[in-house]
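Deliverable D2.4 — example input (structure tokens):
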């Protein structure tokens, strides 16, 4: 009994000093506090919403620790990160963060602006007199340590962010790495000599190829900033090895969000569009790797990766084609990216590739995701997907049983298309074919077939009197009218 009471005491009276460190990805670079309403901006960085609005209101752009400058032109909610933060708080017995109000955010931004340009402090204060109030000297000097106030130095706050006040020395070292290995590598990466840059990225690539802990330790803002410059180098070896090293860094799950937030994705997209062929192979792999993290999916789509990834499906490089398809599969798990792909005309392009047998298995996976959304279903039904899939099943020319199952899964996704799907399925004589597959297919295939047949056999009084030919023709007329008006 004594031992049991001890356990309860330990469980409920956890010492504040044992509080787990807050991941840096959860902290707003401007407020220095845990984010309650995180948003992604165009450059891929994430901030507290009101901090972004305050920066735009005061025409102020902060300089981040890696020297990058965020782009506030587009702001979208980072719902995945918000959910992750709330889950972290629950598991760590922390109160969920509360959004800072706009006035507080404006005070913080004004402070940053005044600290960067102290000679303008009196003028700016006078301009805001009567509109805003500097709350205290402590607030005025509270500049987050990870925001640079000039190109050469950063200001250490008198009172650091609340959530880091009890961090241990090891936590601080993790958040602000300054190892000898990192410094030596940076010197070479930032060298003006191409030969030294080449030597550095080749060495970095080898270091991160197999050493997992090295991937984590050297994935720092300073190194990511240096890589961002070298990734777009006009020298083949420097560009290729820089992107390959980044792929190695992205293999560590703890690095995926950090890499995206560094603002490096736009540079990767530029290389995918017009870089060297081997570099494009590595970029496709990097985007695939980064897309595996749910927090990155929406942002990668917003940053413009979808069009070049679609184009890369036609690349001469097999590796580029396959990794681009995998990247698109994972990105299309998010509804916002599905809608973007439909607007880009991806459905017709993907169906065309399936008909020619081009990467059939992986393309069908993407189409399965698109069929899960109303926009994707409509575009696929209009594009002849039902007839295409039924024809493929009838011929049975699949490279594997899993590809056959993917085809049935895509057809099942379309079966949620209501009367439109039933009419097209009836026209393609799908029911007879599906009955045959149900008798001889794998268990997974049989399961999908049974579900599709259930949809086809569901009838009510109104449906029994439907003139399918008239319905199909009317839908074709509607589609033509949409095309004419667009």
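Example output (designed residues):
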């Amino acid at each position: 009994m004594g031992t049991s009471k001890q356990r309860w005491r330990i469980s409920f009276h956890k010492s504040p000093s044992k509080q787990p460190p807050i991941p840096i990805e959860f902290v707003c670079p401007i407020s220095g506090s845990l984010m309650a309403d995180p948003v992604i901006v165009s450059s891929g960085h994430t901030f507290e919403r009101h901090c972004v609005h305050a920066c735009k209101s005061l025409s102020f752009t902060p300089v981040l620790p890696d020297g990058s400058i965020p782009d506030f032109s587009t702001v979208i909610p980072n719902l995945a990160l918000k959910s992750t933060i709330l889950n972290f708080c629950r598991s760590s017995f922390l109160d969920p963060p509360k959004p800072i109000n706009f006035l507080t955010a404006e005070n913080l931004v004004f402070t940053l602006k005044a600290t960067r340009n102290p000679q303008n402090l009196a003028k700016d204060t006078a301009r805001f007199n009567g509109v805003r109030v500097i709350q205290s000297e402590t607030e005025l000097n509270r500049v987050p340590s990870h925001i640079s106030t000039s190109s050469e130095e950063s200001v250490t706050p008198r009172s650091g962010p609340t959530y880091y006040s009890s961090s241990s020395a090891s936590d601080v070292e993790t958040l602000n790495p300054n190892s000898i290995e990192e410094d030596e590598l940076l010197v070479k990466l930032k060298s003006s000599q191409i030969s030294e840059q080449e030597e550095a990225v080749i060495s970095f690539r080898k270091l991160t190829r197999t050493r997992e802990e090295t991937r984590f330790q050297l994935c720092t803002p300073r190194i990511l900033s240096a890589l961002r410059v070298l990734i777009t180098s006009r020298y083949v070896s420097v560009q290729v090895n820089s992107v390959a090293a980044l792929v190695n860094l992205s293999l560590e799950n703890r690095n995926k969000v950090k890499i995206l937030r560094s603002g490096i994705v736009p540079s990767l997209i530029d290389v995918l569009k017009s870089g060297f062929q081997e570099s494009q192979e590595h970029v496709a792999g990097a985007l695939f790797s980064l897309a595996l993290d749910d927090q990155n999916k929406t942002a990668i789509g917003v940053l413009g990766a979808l069009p070049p990834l679609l184009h890369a499906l036609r690349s001469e490089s097999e590796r580029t084609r396959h990794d681009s398809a995998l990247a698109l599969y994972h990105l299309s798990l998010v509804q916002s990216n599905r809608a973007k792909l439909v607007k880009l005309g991806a459905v017709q392009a993907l169906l065309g590739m399936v008909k020619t047998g081009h990467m059939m298995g992986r393309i069908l996976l993407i189409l399965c995701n698109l069929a899960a959304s109303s926009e994707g279903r409509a575009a696929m039904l209009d594009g002849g997907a039902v007839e295409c899939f039924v024809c493929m099943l009838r011929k049975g020319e699949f490279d594997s049983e899993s590809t056959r199952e993917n085809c049935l899964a895509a057809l099942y996704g379309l079966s949620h298309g209501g009367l439109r799907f039933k009419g097209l399925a009836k026209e393609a004589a799908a029911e007879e074919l599906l009955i045959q597959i149900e008798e001889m297919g794998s268990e997974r295939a049989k399961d999908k077939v049974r579900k599709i047949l259930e949809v086809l056999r569901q009838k009510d009084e109104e449906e029994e009197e439907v003139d399918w030919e008239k319905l199909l023709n009317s839908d074709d007329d509607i589609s033509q009218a949409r095309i004419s008006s667009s």
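Residues 356-486 form a domain with the Leucine-rich Repeat Variant fold (CATH 1.25.10.10).
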